[in-house]
C-alpha cells in the first residue's frame, strides 16, 4: 500500500509566532512544506509559484472531493498513486473565534494528528504580533521557537518570497561587549563583524543568508538544519563507534580549519554547536554559532558553562574568560568533543575538582571505556589536550594526524563534501572549495609519529598562522601547565557523563 502522508502535530500551534497583516479577517495561514501544491477552490496568494493559504472562514474541509475547500490532486505528489490513500473528505478544520483550531478526522485511512508532519505549519496571525519589528516580518513569516542559547533564541521562519524554511537567530544587542567600548563606532564594528561572517561559505559551516540589523537586536537568517545536535545524538546513543566518530570529527576539524584560515576563532565549540543534517550517524555536519563570541560579552558566554566548563581550554578558565586567546582554544575544545562519550574531565573524580582537572590537564583513559579504542585516537587526544597553548597541535596538525590515515573514511568524507558543494552551488551559494583540505593528499606524512626529543611536528600550513582578529597574546602559566605522570595512580570512573 502506498504510504499515506502524515500530518502535523497540533501541539505545534501553541509555539507559533506572528506575521503582520493588513487584513484583520485573516486568523491564520497554512504554508506548504512541499512545493507541488495546486490549490483548488480557495483564494490563494502566489509568490514565485509557491502558494500559501489564508484562513478567514470558520470551517475548511480537505480531501480528494471537488467540493472540499482544499482539493488534493495527483500532481501534488512525486508518486501519483499516493492520491488514492486520501479520502474524498479526509479531514475538517474548524476555528473557534480565531484562537483555537480543531481537526476532525473524516477519512477511512486515518489522519495522524499526533504523528509526523502533514506538510503544513499553522501560523496564528494575531498572537505575539508585536514581538518582531516590521523589518523582519515584512520579509519573513515567524514560526515556532526552535531553541535558546547564550547568544539568543532561534526561531523557524519562512521566507515570504519563496516559502523556503530558514532558522532565525535573534541576538539582543544588550549582550554585546563592544557596545560600551566603542561608543559611536559600535554600529560600524558590528557591521564589519557581520560582513565577515556573511562571506563564509563552506559545506560544513552553517550558511548565513541574511542579517537584519535593528536598534534592539541582530536577526540572523540561517540555513535550517533538521537532524538535531550532536549532543542529543550522543545522549541517545551513549557514544559513537570509533569509525563513526572519525567520520564526523574529520568534518569538524576541516570546518574549524576553514574558520581559522579566515581569521575566526570559534571560542564556543561544544556538541550543542555541531548540527547534523539527518538521522544517520555518518552525515554532513554543520558548525554553528561561530564568530558571535566576539560580539557577545564574555560573562554572557561563560554563563552557559556555569558549574560544568567541560569544553573550555585551560587558558580561558585561568582568566575567567577575560583574557585574549589564540585559535588553540578551539583545538582543545575539539579534543574534549572527540571524547564526549566519556569526557576526560568530570565532576565524578574525588581527588580534584573539575576546574583543577582542566587547568592542570589531569585525565585518564580507563580500560572500561578505552580498551577497544586505537592508540592513534588516544595519541590525537593527548596532543590536542596539551595544557600549554603553544605546544598544542594546530588544527592543520589535527587534520594531518595518523588517526585520519584511513582511505575509506577520507574517501567517504570527500564524496560527501563534493556532493554538498554541488548542492550549495545549485542553490546559488558560493560554496566552491578552491582546493581539497590537505588531509586528502598523499604527499605529506601524517602528524602522528611519536614525539622526538620532546617536540611536536610543526605544520607549514597557513591555517596555523591565522589567529583570530582579536587575538593579541598567548597566555602562559608554566606552574599550571603540567600533566599527571603516566605511572601515577588514577581513579577508574564508573559513570559515563555525556555533557
UniProtKB/TrEMBL annotation:
InterPro entries: FHA_dom, Kinase-like_dom_sf, Prot_kinase_dom, Ser/Thr_kinase_AS, SMAD_FHA_dom_sf. GO terms for molecular function: ATP binding; protein kinase activity. Residues 447-499 are annotated as: Disordered. Coiled coil: none annotated. Residues 60-118 form the FHA domain. Residues 455-467 have a biased composition (Polar residues). SUPFAM superfamilies: Protein kinase-like (PK-like), SMAD/FHA domain. This is Kinase domain protein. It comes from Opisthorchis viverrini (Southeast Asian liver fluke).
